[in-house]
Each structure stands twice: as structure tokens, then as C-alpha cells.
Specification:
The structure holds 2 protein chains of 2 kinds.
Chain A lengths: L2 H32 L6 H19 L3 H24 L7 H23 L4 E2 L9 E4 L2 E4 H23 L1 H11 L1 H6 L4 H27 L1 E2 L5 H14 L4 H21 L8 H15 L14
Antiparallel strand pairs in A: 1-4, 2-3
Chain B lengths: L1 E10 L2 E11 L4 E6 L5 H9 L6 E6 L8 E2 L5 H6 L2 E4 L11 H8 L8 H11 L1 H5 L10 H13 L5 E5 L7 H16 L3 E6 L2 H7 L2 E6 L2 E7 H5 L2 H6 L5
Parallel strand pairs in B: 3-8, 3-9, 6-7, 7-8
Antiparallel strand pairs in B: 1-2, 1-4, 4-5, 9-10
The chains are: A mainly alpha, B alpha/beta.
Chain lengths: 298, 240
């Protein structure tokens, strides 16, 4: 096992991790602001993937415009889901929202199967995207590079938005104390809507990436990235955006290295390993790596 | 300025407020005193729009001589926009936001150029906040958090400032600082409605006061009269 092989595995892990991170960010943001574990979040990845296919094949847009349209489409889907299902049950016990999100998830999957059929579809990115580049002993496709760089740009933009802008400060204030945020004049409906929109838009972009990376999409494809990103968000500390990013990369790297470095007979234990990691981290750090102890208030 | 007319408020199935009537005149300091569970905080939350009255009206006149508006059906952010700012019970600073970000949240509805200047005047009022402006608000002491909460409420440039138990859990010296500041804010033309368990301080600061008992107004009048009322002295001022 030479260093080139390990470098190649690291690159693969970073690419996978950047997709987990994008989905995990939305998970974490939504949990942070409304304390909702949104299991329908993974299915937004699926919607993003099919939207990509639609915009490329039926509308025939150029690639950057496709990405923008997918982002906006999924923002819209997130807004509609929040408006029709989560807003009416705001203030209800946490478990109500949790069950509702499972329901929405199952509904989205079944609408997908009904209207798009359960058959996997091939995902055809333009040919130049598939060109293989070599960097020393590491090789990757242009699409992999695009995935990684897009993810990084989106994450930096998001962190700046949350840190610096008025909307970002309002989102953090609402996440911390919804009633006091209202007393300060923040329209929490707008803030929560913006959170769902941004989180869902990022998940949609992850769907585009997922399709480009693995070449096949189907209506149930959101399940795995949804669950793994949930794990990534929990590892990083639910509610923390940097935590979600860190958790996504750790999970992506760990998963790829586990499969790549251990003897092949263990590779089918990949998911057992993912959840094992989760359990170990939560035993040591119950709030995740960067999570804040919410009870710890002066 | 503010007339609460005959409001009834329910929280869940509990009938908390019964026909509450309050009047706050322009430029006054009004105190609302009463025991735990008398309905003081509920009254304030209803004025700010966090709770809705099931009966009655809340009329607000931003400037003397203008027509009153009924704010009892308005959203909290609209009420803030109309000039009523509440400094909530337990201070409610955003612990993970910096001191400065807390002040910016207070100015959320404003988009004018004066925000930075107003932040500086809060720092002049409480210099410790200026020194710690980039630190997380959760790291401040209780007294400093109260100063921040008060400064934050002022950032929306309120005409009516509502305070819910500003003295809660604070050292006597800090309470004096805060109350002196309230006096000063009032002298600059801001009307104040204050809820306090510390009836001595509240009656000393305010012009008039209302005494709430189990969701009803039991007594009201000039603060100086109430302070010498034997019944009040016995129940709230600890004078035998």
C-alpha cells in the first residue's frame, strides 16, 4: 500500500465528505432554529438530483445555470414543506415534528416512485465533465473537482452569511431564543423560512453532485445521504454549521479510508462502521465535536 | 399613550388575566407590582403581542394627539416597529452572540445610518459593554447582561420601554445603577412600564403604580400614596 494509494483515498474521502457536509449543514441549521430533526431533508437531495436531470435533458440549460435552477427549485421545495407542514405544528412537542418529517419523507419517496418510476435513471453530465485529470499519483474527474470546489465555495459563503449579515444574525438570535427574537422585532416566520430555503437549496446541490458522482439516480436515493448527513451533523454537534462541515468531512474520509485501507472482506461493514463511529463519539462527547452545551447558560 | 382596556388572557385552558385595565400616559413611569403568579409577565407579553387577549383592546398612541391604534391583534415585530420595546424577564440576552451583535439585533428593524452611533452611546452609558463588545454575551456577569439587555431594548429607539423584573438576581449596587439609568432614560422622553417584585424600588422610581392580584387589578394610584397605604406596606413592602 503506497503513499499514492493513500493520497487517492484521501481525495475520494474529501469529495464524498463535501457532499455529506452540504446536506449536514441544512440538517443542522434546521435543527438549530426550530429544534426539528428533519428526516425529509435527505429526500431534498433526491429532488435536487431529478431537478438536475430535468434541467439538463428537457430544458437543456448550460451547467452553471442548471446548478442555480436546482438550488432555487429546492429552496422552493423547502419553503413549501415548512409552510404547509412544519409551521402549523410549531410549538407542538418535538416528537410531532419528527414524525411529520418521517411522513413527508415517505410521501416524497412515493410521489417520486409514482411519477418517475422506481427504475434508476442514468445521469448524463456533459462529456468534458468526465475527463480524468492526473495530479502526481492521484487521479480524479473534472466533475469531482467541480463538486469539491463548489462545496467549499458554498460553505464559505454560508458561514459568512450566518456570521456577518443581518439575516445571519437574526437566524442565530432566533435559534437561541425564539420569543426574545420576536421581542426584538425579528419576523421569525421569515427567518425560519430562509433557513429552510438555504438548507434545502444546499441539499439540492448535493443531489446534483451525487448524481454526477455516482451516475445513477432513483426516487429512494435520498435515504442514504440523508441518514449519513444526520450522523455527520450529530458528530459535529447538531446546530453548529462548522460542526456539520467538520462532521461531513470526517465521515466521508473515515468511510472511504475504512473501505480502502482494510482488507476487502470488511468493506461490506462500511455502514456498521459509520454508526459505530457515531456511538463512540457520542459516548465521549455527548454534544458532538463542536456542539455547545445548551444547558450551559449564565 | 397606552390604554389596556378590559383584557382577558388565557394560557391554554387557564384563565390568567381578568378584565385588566391599565393606563400609561406619555412620559410617565408606571410600575406593575404583585406576587408571583399575579399575571404581571402575562400582561407584558400580551402588550408585546407574544400572547393574544381573548377579550378587550390594547390601544396605543405613539404621539400625543394622534389617533390610537389597536395593537392587540398585531404581530410582535409590528409592535416593536410602532415603538414599544420590551426587555424580557430573565434578561434574555443571546448568549452565543457577541455583545455588539446583541445590540445589532436590538436595532433589527432599523436601517438608518445612526445605528453605529447609538451603539456607541450604549457603550458610553455602560463602558464595560464597550470593553467587552466582541465577547459572547453569555460570558458577561448577570449585572452586565442586564445592562446589555437594557441597551439592546433602547436600540430600537422605543417610545415606550417595557421592563420585566430588571432587578431579578442582581446585587443591590447594580440595581441602583440600572434604576438610575431608567430615571435618566425617562427624563429623555421615553415612557416606562416596569414590572417589579422589588416593590420598594418600583414605587420609589415610578409616578403611578398598579397592584395585580391573581390576574386582577387590586389597587392603583400614585406611587407615593401606595407606598404609604397600610395594606401595601404589609403585603409588599415588609412593613408590619
Amino acid at each position: 500500500m503506497d503513499s499514492g494509494y493513500i493520497a487517492q483515498q484521501l481525495v475520494n474521502g474529501l469529495i464524498l465528505g463535501s457532499m455529506y457536509a452540504l446536506v449536514a449543514i441544512g440538517f443542522s441549521m434546521i435543527y438549530g432554529i426550530v429544534r426539528l430533526i428533519n428526516f425529509a431533508h435527505g429526500d431534498i437531495v433526491m429532488i435536487g438530483a431529478f431537478a438536475t436531470l430535468a434541467f439538463i435533458e428537457t430544458v437543456g440549460l448550460p451547467f452553471p445555470l442548471v446548478a442555480l435552477c436546482v438550488f432555487l427549485t429546492c429552496c422552493g421545495v423547502g419553503i413549501v414543506i415548512e409552510r404547509v407542514s412544519f409551521r402549523p405544528m410549531r410549538g407542538a412537542p418535538q416528537v410531532t415534528g419528527f414524525i411529520a418529517s418521517l411522513g413527508i419523507s415517505i410521501m416524497l419517496q412515493n410521489i417520486g416512485i409514482l411519477t418517475l418510476s422506481a427504475q434508476p435513471r442514468n445521469f448524463s453530465f456533459p462529456g468534458y465533465m468526465q475527463t480524468i485529470l492526473h495530479l502526481g499519483s492521484v487521479s480524479f474527474r473534472i466533475i469531482d473537482l467541480v463538486i469539491f470546489l463548489t462545496a467549499i465555495v458554498l460553505m464559505v459563503t454560508l458561514v459568512l452569511l450566518v456570521k456577518k449579515t443581518k439575516l445571519g444574525i437574526a437566524m442565530r438570535a432566533t435559534a437561541e431564543n425564539i420569543d426574545v427574537a420576536r421581542l426584538m422585532g425579528i419576523n421569525i416566520n421569515h427567518t425560519i423560512m430562509a433557513t429552510f430555503a438555504i438548507g434545502s437549496g444546499l441539499a439540492g446541490i448535493a443531489g446534483l453532485m451525487w448524481g454526477g458522482k455516482f451516475g445513477q439516480i432513483d426516487p429512494l436515493m435520498g435515504y442514504v445521504p440523508g441518514l449519513k448527513s444526520f450522523v455527520a451533523a450529530v458528530i459535529g454537534g447538531v446546530g453548529s454549521i462548522p460542526g456539520a462541515i467538520l462532521g461531513g468531512f470526517i465521515l466521508g474520509l473515515a468511510e472511504v479510508l475504512f473501505v480502502g485501507l482494510l482488507p476487502p472482506i470488511y468493506s461490506s461493514y462500511r455502514d456498521a462502521f459509520v454508526f459505530g463511529t457515531l456511538i463512540v463519539i457520542l459516548i465521549i462527547l455527548p454534544n458532538g465535536l463542536l456542539g455547545k452545551d445548551l444547558e450551559d447558560r449564565a | 399613550m397606552l390604554t389596556v382596556e378590559n383584557i382577558d388572557v388565557h394560557r391554554g385552558k387557564t384563565h390568567v388575566l381578568h378584565q385588566i385595565d391599565l393606563h400609561v400616559g406619555h412620559g410617565e413611569i408606571i410600575a406593575l407590582i404583585g406576587a408571583n403568579g399575579a399575571g404581571k409577565t402575562t400582561t407584558l407579553k400580551t402588550i408585546s403581542g407574544l400572547l393574544r387577549p381573548t377579550k378587550g383592546k390594547i390601544l396605543y398612541t405613539p404621539e400625543a394627539g394622534k389617533a390610537p391604534i389597536d395593537i392587540s391583534t398585531m404581530a410582535p415585530e409590528q409592535i416593536v416597529g410602532a415603538g414599544i420595546s420590551q426587555c424580557p424577564e430573565g434578561r434574555g440576552v443571546f448568549a452565543q452572540l457577541s455583545v455588539k451583535e446583541n445590540l445589532l439585533v436590538g436595532a433589527y428593524l432599523r436601517s438608518d445610518k445612526e445605528i453605529e452611533k447609538d451603539i456607541q452611546s450604549v457603550y458610553e452609558m455602560f463602558p464595560i459593554l464597550g470593553e467587552r463588545s466582541t465577547q459572547a454575551a453569555g460570558k458577561l456577569s448577570g449585572g452586565q447582561q442586564m445592562m446589555l439587555a437594557l441597551g439592546r431594548s433602547l436600540m430600537s429607539q422605543p417610545k415606550l420601554l417595557i421592563l420585566d423584573e430588571p432587578s431579578l438576581g442582581l446585587a443591590p449596587l447594580i440595581i441602583e445603577t440600572i434604576f438610575a439609568m431608567l430615571q435618566k432614560i425617562n427624563s429623555q422622553g421615553v415612557t416606562i412600564l416596569i414590572v417589579e417584585q422589588n416593590a420598594v424600588m418600583a414605587l420609589d422610581l415610578s409616578h403611578r403604580a398598579y397592584v395585580l392580584e391573581t390576574g386582577r387589578v387590586a389597587l392603583s394610584g400614585l406611587s407615593s400614596d401606595l407606598a404609604s397605604n397600610p395594606q401595601i406596606q404589609k403585603s409588599y413592602l415588609g412593613v408590619e
